[in-house]
């Protein structure tokens, strides 16, 4: 059961991270974020919005992949659980629904 709780915490953290990234990604997609600046010694280096957009998209894809893997592990644990299986399956379904919603939102914004 301890592994289940650890995985649930990981899933919630990933979901929160994805949510924050999706907000940034959506703003980038609509052009409401100003250009990002990075100081490299004395030279000010401007990153293009397209580069930032692609970078955030890659980060979101990685987070979605990690969340899918955590959900898979949760599914394995839930399928082997006999005493508290219904509650676990309900929780697992909720995490899967969140993953599906975030994936759809990401694809729509892309």
Q: What is the succession of H and E elements? A: HEEHH
Helix content: over 70%
CATH architecture: Up-down Bundle
**Which stretches are poorly predicted, pLDDT < 50 over at least 5 residues?**
41-46
Overall geometric form: elongated
Determine and state the CATH class. Answer: Mainly Alpha
Largest sheet: 2 strands, antiparallel
Instruction: Tell me the number of helical segments per DSSP (H or I, 4 or more residues long).
Output: 3
**Please, how many domains?**
1
Alpha-carbon distance between the termini? Answer: 38 Å
Q: Total strand count, please?
A: 2
Which sequence of strands runs across the widest sheet? 1-2
Counting helices, strands and paired strands, the structural category is: mainly alpha
Mean of residue pLDDT? 85
**Rg, nearest Å:** 18 Å
Q: What proportion strand?
A: 5-15%
Q: What is the CATH topology classification name?
A: Methane Monooxygenase Hydroxylase, Chain G, domain 1
InterPro entries: Golgi_SNAP_su1
Organism: Graphocephala atropunctata
Subcellular location: Golgi apparatus membrane
Family: Belongs to the GOSR1 family.
């Amino acid at each position: 059961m301890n592994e289940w709780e650890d995985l649930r915490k990981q899933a919630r953290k990933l979901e929160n991270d994805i949510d924050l990234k999706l907000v940034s990604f959506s703003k980038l997609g609509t052009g409401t974020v100003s250009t990002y600046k990075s100081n490299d010694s004395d030279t000010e280096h401007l990153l293009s919005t397209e580069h930032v957009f692609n970078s955030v998209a890659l980060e979101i894809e990685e987070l979605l992949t990690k969340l899918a893997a955590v959900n898979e592990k949760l599914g394995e644990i839930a399928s082997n659980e006999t005493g508290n299986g219904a509650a676990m399956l309900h929780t697992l379904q909720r995490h899967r629904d969140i993953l599906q919603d975030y994936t759809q939102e990401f694809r729509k914004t892309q």
